[in-house]
């Protein structure tokens, strides 16, 4: 990273790289005090990382080198930090208590407040039955049609906060264009009680528009072509008023947001309307309040050694750019957070999966790792084998709640014991000698134990973070999501990346249009040999 002086860190890495986590614990007493932070109920234990005080000091020095404080202020104050698209980045304003944030001299807080009022009023009307279906029946089923940032955030939150749902309210999500998702859901719903929420920042996304058109067709076929009823049953969440009205959704049924809200940062905006309809507007506000609390912590904790998103980000930099660990696994232990890895996957990989810096220069260092994961407890019975004994080391973030008042203690105790034990196993491992002694104590012959013990060695020395929430409530979920947003931001600053465009998604979309034309006309145009062959394979099938 030529823009940084890494000499100190590089030398330090040479000294530290062969020390095991257990050696680091032996060298430093009270590591769990030294390497844990707490903020507003959230507990962050990062003691099981390959760091010591010197590492931390040197990593923190990077924040000075890149002038992180100035970047943070630039984002919060509405400067156009998305330089390739000349846009401000103000998802934080959506949950802010400030009364003024200016973009091009316009106070965007006024715009935000007015859409929030519209959302609140719509929620009240729908929940009270004032906004009913065309036949007068109450709307009880929300179908969110959207993809990427117009899907993953609402999916995560609605799944996580299901216990908070409005009485009798159901929600389903349609993202893929394969037709199965749409048809499966349409087969089970009642047009009289269903609201279709078309969620798309651009209102041009092929998958979403195709699904929306098909849903509209289905609706009309079920209502004797009652076009007037569309107004009660279709609403749009978008920045593109023109495309929304062209689609046939009236302006008053559109909930707006703005180009200073990135798709993957949009659940706090009108894109969150599906969430608010499902869990109620007050709970949606709690989600925003939690995120705002993390925003304040991030913005105001100028001693970065105490700043949780900053530390989380620096640990990631340490592993990616020094240890060459280019994969990060997220293991949420509460089933309610099962979609959290998918959400963070878009957040981090679409933001920081880049190899050109802000100034258009090719990057010669590693940037975003592969982010993946699923429910931690399920992972234990699937891919944790590789994490424990595989040939690569993959740092892990374990996310767990202290209490799940919608579960029960016996189950929660077991969940906790598993999460803690996994982190312990990753760090401590098991030696050949211990494995052999265990086998002998189980009655195995010495010759067999000699052999089998080789397969039961755990190298350990695998780092993990533990992020503990008091509970999975709207407030703490908001805090957790904002924590990862800010972590992503800090890493982008250190890698000198614009974390707020996503040009890497464009080529595939562009080529898909050309391939679709070939399929529709049955004339294969100019592609590479392999692509021609596979298009022809499909054409052969559909021409039968
Ligand atoms: O909300 P839209 O405009 O339909 O876009 C959906 C998603 O597609 C992307 O543009 C990627 O193709 C994401 O950035 C975005 O979240």
UniProtKB/TrEMBL annotation:
Q: This chain belongs to which protein, by name?
A: Glucose-6-phosphate isomerase
Which superkingdom heads the taxonomic lineage of this protein's source? Bacteria
What keywords appear on the UniProt entry?
Answer: Cytoplasm, Gluconeogenesis, Glycolysis, Isomerase
Q: Which family does it belong to?
A: Belongs to the GPI family.
* Chief place of localization: cytoplasm
UniProt GO cellular component terms? cytosol
Instruction: List the catalytic residues.
Output: 350 (proton donor), 381, 509
Report the GO molecular function annotations. carbohydrate derivative binding; glucose-6-phosphate isomerase activity; monosaccharide binding
UniProt entry tagged with the keyword Repeat: no
The gene name reads: pgi
Q: What does this protein do?
A: Catalyzes the reversible isomerization of glucose-6-phosphate to fructose-6-phosphate.
User: Where does the protein end up?
Assistant: Cytoplasm
BP term (GO), one: glucose 6-phosphate metabolic process
The record's catalysed reaction(s) read: alpha-D-glucose 6-phosphate = beta-D-fructose 6-phosphate
Its annotated pathway reads: Carbohydrate degradation; glycolysis; D-glyceraldehyde 3-phosphate and glycerone phosphate from D-glucose: step 2/4; Carbohydrate biosynthesis; gluconeogenesis
Cross-referenced Pfam families, in alphabetical order?
A: PGI (PF00342)
């Amino acid at each position: 990273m030529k823009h940084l002086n890494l000499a100190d860190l590089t030398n330090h890495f040479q000294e530290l790289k062969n020390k095991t986590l257990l050696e680091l614990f032996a060298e430093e007493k009270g590591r769990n005090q030294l390497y844990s932070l707490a903020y507003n109920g959230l507990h962050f234990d990062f003691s099981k990382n390959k760091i010591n005080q010197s590492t931390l000091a040197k990593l923190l020095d990077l924040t000075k080198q890149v002038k992180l404080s100035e970047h943070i202020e630039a984002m919060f104050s509405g400067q156009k930090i998305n330089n390739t698209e000349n846009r401000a980045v103000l998802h934080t304003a959506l949950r802010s208590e400030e009364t003024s944030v200016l973009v091009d001299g316009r106070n965007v807080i006024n715009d935000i407040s007015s859409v929030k009022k519209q959302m609140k009023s719509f929620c009240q009307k729908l929940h009270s039955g004032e906004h009913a279906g065309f036949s007068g029946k109450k709307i009880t089923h929300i179908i969110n049609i959207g993809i990427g940032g117009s899907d993953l955030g609402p999916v995560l939150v609605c799944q996580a906060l299901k216990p908070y749902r409005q009485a009798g309210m159901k929600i389903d999500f349609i993202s893929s264009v394969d037709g199965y998702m749409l048809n499966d859901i349409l087969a089970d719903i009642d047009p009289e009680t269903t609201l279709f929420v078309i969620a798309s920042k651009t209102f041009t996304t092929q998958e979403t528009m195709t699904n929306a058109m098909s849903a509209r067709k289905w609706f009309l076929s079920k209502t004797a072509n009652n076009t007037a009823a569309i107004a009660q049953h279709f609403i749009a969440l978008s920045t593109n008023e023109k495309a929304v009205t062209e689609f046939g959704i009236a302006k008053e049924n559109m909930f707006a947001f703005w180009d200073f809200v990135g798709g993957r940062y949009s659940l706090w905006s009108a894109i969150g309307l599906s969430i608010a309809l499902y869990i109620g507007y007050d709970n949606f506000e709690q989600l925003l309040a939690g995120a705002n609390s993390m925003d304040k912590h991030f913005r105001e904790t100028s001693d970065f050694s105490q700043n949780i998103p900053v530390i989380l980000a620096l640990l990631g930099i340490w592993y990616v750019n020094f240890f060459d660990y280019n994969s990060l696994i997220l293991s949420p232990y509460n089933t309610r957070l099962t979609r959290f890895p998918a959400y963070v996957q878009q957040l981090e990989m679409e933001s920081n999966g880049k190899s050109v810096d802000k100034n258009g220069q090719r990057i010669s260092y590693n940037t975003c790792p592969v982010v993946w994961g699923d429910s931690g407890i399920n992972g234990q019975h699937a891919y944790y084998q590789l994490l424990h004994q595989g040939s690569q080391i993959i740092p892990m973030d374990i996310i767990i709640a202290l209490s799940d008042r919608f579960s029960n203690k016996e189950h929660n105790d077991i969940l906790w014991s598993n999460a803690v034990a996994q982190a312990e196993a990753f760090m401590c491992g098991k030696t050949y000698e211990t494995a052999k002694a265990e086998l002998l104590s189980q009655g195995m012959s010495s010759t067999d134990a000699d052999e089998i013990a080789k397969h039961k060695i755990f190298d350990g020395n695998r780092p993990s973070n533990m992020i503990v929430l008091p509970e999975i409530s709207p407030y703490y979920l908001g805090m957790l999501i904002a924590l990862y947003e800010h972590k992503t931001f800090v890493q982008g600053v250190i890698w000198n990346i614009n974390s707020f465009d996503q040009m890497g998604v464009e080529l595939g979309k562009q080529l898909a249009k050309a391939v679709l034309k070939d399929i529709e006309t049955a004339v294969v145009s100019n592609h590479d040999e392999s692509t021609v062959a596979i298009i022809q394979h499909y054409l052969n099938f559909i021409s039968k």
